[in-house]
Amino acid sequence: MFNSKKIMIQSFLILSLLVTFSSQAELAKQVDGVTTIHLDQYGGYFETKETLAGLKAGTYEFVITNKTNKLVGFHLQNNKTREELDRFPLEPNQTRISRVEITSDGFRFRCPINPTPWYEIDGVK
Fold first, then answer.
1. 4-121 — its CATH code?
2. Integer Cα distance of 73 and 64 in angstroms
3. How far are the Cα atoms of 10, 44, 52, 70, 90 from residue 103, in angstroms, in the given order?
4. SS3 30
5. Residues 17-72: tens digit of each pLDDT
């Protein structure tokens, strides 16, 4: 059954994230061949300091911080093959780093505990 309200809410959350990315985002920094992306997880959405546009294949460190007062999770996959790259829980105010190889397939991430939509990044070159 098609749930238009759920689709509208997910679309709004994704649009809000894109507006956040474009209005406050800076370029991801690369140090010693590793690109760092900071993701703060709030109740039902992620926010980042860096833009997720124009990324290149290579080694990435995702720095994920739980900004809620409850347990959340982080789930990272290859965007094309759906191969799991990393998955872990985060306690309130906890920060964890995930170092992975990102290919031109791109990547996607979400919270499996506090359900968020998949954030799909497919413009990796």
1. 2.60.40.420
2. 9
3. 26, 27, 14, 32, 26
4. strand
5. 554 544 566 888 888 899 999 999 998 899 998 988 889 999 999 999 999 999 99
Tokens of 107: 């990547």
What is the three-class DSSP state of 18? Answer: helix
Tokens 């109740």 found at = 43
Tokens of 44: 């039902």
Percent of the chain at pLDDT above 90?
Answer: 61
Listed by start position, the domains of the chain span: 4-121
pTM greater than the 0.90 cutoff: no
The mean pLDDT of 84-105, rounded to a whole number, is 97
Q: How far is CA 6 from CA 73, 75, 80, 88, 110, in A?
A: 21, 21, 24, 26, 16
